Amino acid sequence: MSPTWTVAVTVIPVAMSVTWFSTFALIVRAASRWIAHHFATIDIVSGLIFAVLGFIMVVEGAIELFG
After folding, report:
1. For the whole model, what pTM was predicted?
2. Distance in angstroms (rounded) separating the CA atoms of residues 51 and 45
């Protein structure tokens, strides 16, 4: 392989990685701001989801046990 291709094969993946991780970091930073702003709503919604799932598991367990 020529030196030009060796450099290209090295530089292109590095540039793609830097671009990918920089973009991902910016998205995560924006998401963390949104999550920090709406944390109470997220806690309530996730709590309700877990409560419903827990209730479903209890009902299914009771049906299997007594059923």
Report:
1. 0.55
2. 10
The whole-number pLDDT of residue 1 equals 77
**Does pLDDT of 35 surpass 90?**
yes
The number of folded domains in the chain is 1
Token couple for 35: 């999550």
Q: Rounded to the nearest 5°, which phi and psi values hold at 2? A: -75, 160
Reported confidence tier of residue 67, pLDDT bands at 50, 70, 90: confident
Angle between helices 3-37 and 39-66 (to 10 degrees): 80
Q: Which domain holds residue 45?
A: 3-66
Q: Give the Cα separation of 54 and 59 in Å (integer).
A: 9
- Asked whether 30 and 22 are in contact (CB, 8 A), the reply is no
Write the CB contacts of 42 (distance below 8 Å, at least 6 apart in sequence). 35
